[in-house]
Amino acid sequence: METARRRRAGAAGPAFASAILVIFAFSCSSRGPAFTWTILVIFAFLVRNQQWCQRLDRPTVASNALFNYKDKDPTGPDKWAKLNKGWAACGDGKKQCPIDICKVEINKDMGPLDQAYKSSACTLENRGHDFILQWKGGNGKLTIEKKDYVLQQVHWHVPSEHTVNGTRFDMELHMVHEDSSKARAVISVLYSTKEAGDPDKT
Ligand SMILES: *[C@@H]1O[C@H](CO)[C@@H](O)[C@H](O)[C@H]1NC(C)=O
């Protein structure tokens, strides 16, 4: 909202004011060249200022709000590759999210998830497409095949990022862990707000 407001003001405000000033500068040219030059310098500043406004508006973190998980939406998964140059892999990548989970194979060698977390200070941020809780320096660990992965952050997608046999869930939690070489282990939990026996259950 803030970004959109600033972009409108950045594009229309200085351009409109500049046009008025140029007309004013030339209509007052009888006041002498110094006056006209002063007005033109103000005009140049406004043009520069307008560029500055646009630079400020280039999507950074706010770009997260520019995509969503709604199927067949103008900013939905099948359009992601075209929304941003850096997102081309969303169109031709082989292992891209979101994944529709159809076949489940349990890796018996993996054993149970060995989790050991603790309470510690964290920051909560609304990134537009999700909410994220982050721990500076991590929090506790997950051990898989004797290798430790430290919990870095957890975030929730609404609705779920991944689907099961085409069904999208109400919410999805991702618990993102990293080992010392930055290799990741992510635990995903799918939420359904419909209770068993709910007549709305699909
Ligand atoms: C998806 O549907 C197929 C066919 O009905 C079924 O065999 C499979 O177990 C389902 N997958 C999941 C993850 O529920």
From TrEMBL:
Keywords: Lyase, Membrane, Metal-binding, Transmembrane, Transmembrane helix, Zinc. GO terms for molecular function: carbonate dehydratase activity; zinc ion binding. Its EC number is 4.2.1.1. Residues 65-202 form the Alpha-carbonic anhydrase domain. Gene3D superfamilies: Alpha carbonic anhydrase. It catalyses: hydrogencarbonate + H(+) = CO2 + H2O. The chain crosses the membrane at residues 9-26. The keyword Nuclease does not apply. Its cofactor is Zn(2+). InterPro entries: Alpha_CA_prokaryot-like, CA_dom, CA_dom_sf, Carbonic_anhydrase_a-class, Carbonic_anhydrase_a-class_CS. One of its GO terms (biological process) is one-carbon metabolic process. It comes from the Eukaryota. Reversible hydration of carbon dioxide. PANTHER family: CARBONIC ANHYDRASE. Belongs to the alpha-carbonic anhydrase family. This is Carbonic anhydrase. It comes from Aegilops tauschii subsp. strangulata (Goatgrass).
